[in-house]
Every structure is written in C-alpha cells, then in structure tokens.
Design a protein that fits this description.
transmembrane; mainly alpha; 4 helices; transmembrane helix; membrane
Length: about 160
Amino acid sequence: MKINYLFPYKFKKIGWFILIPSAILGFVTLIFDYEPSFLDFNLPAIFINDLNLFSDKRLFGMVNNNIFNEILGIFIIISSLFVAFSKEKSEDEYISKIRLESLVWAVYINYAILLFSFMFIFDFSFLYVMIFNMFTVLLFFIIRFNWQISKLKKTANYEE
C-alpha cells in the first residue's frame, strides 16, 4: 500500500519562489525592526494581557496589531512545507529513505538546540529562540535533504 502524503513536484518551485523573498524580508524586518504602518489593524485576540499593571487579563478581546510579522510567518511556514514535502522528479524508495533520515536528523538537531537554549538562554532572548524554533525543524530538514539529494546526484553522475 503506497501512501501519498507528498505535494506534487511543481509545489517545490512555488515554495522556493515564496520562501526565499519571505525569509530575506523576515530577516531584514527583524534586523531593522520595520513594520509598514498600513498593516495596522484592530483584530480579535485570545489571551489578552495588557502591559498595564492595574489592568486585568482577558480571555477574548480586540487588540491593535501590525500583521506584517504574521503574514511573513505564514508565508515562510507554507512555502517551507511546499519545499520540504513536495515530490522529487523521480521519487523512489531511496529518496523516501533520505527524506525520513533527514526529518529525524532535523528533529534531533532542533531539539538539541532547544535543550541548550533551555539551559543557557533566558528572558526575551529565549522568546526569540522559541520564535525561530517554529521554523528551524523545516529549515534543517530542507538543508539536509537537499544536501543528501545533491550528493546522490553527484554520485550518480560520477558512476556514469
């Protein structure tokens, strides 16, 4: 029984097309703390905690928020999923094995970094680590999987 859990190959190109500019824009936004003002909206929110000491915490309410970071995060996650989980041109059992090994490797590395962060990084710096941690499993997977596929292609070209 063959389970088809991968996107078609064309999704990989779409994913790269969205991922590269989104990641670059995300890093630029992080470095320069830029948020375009036309993306400020009043939005429904869950778990509202005003920074005012005398205000109460609410479960639901409205907040004013710039949605630029959320848009970039959504683009990065969806495009990373497209890149990571799209079929290769010739998908076979060996590529499935490389895919599984790369995913396991990415999870191990990701949680090793997270354990290190729990022990040595604190306060708002830890918050940044947790934000990046949302993306690193997919990032590590994409890097290792593509690196292994390129090694496989070099070996195949060498044998010819």
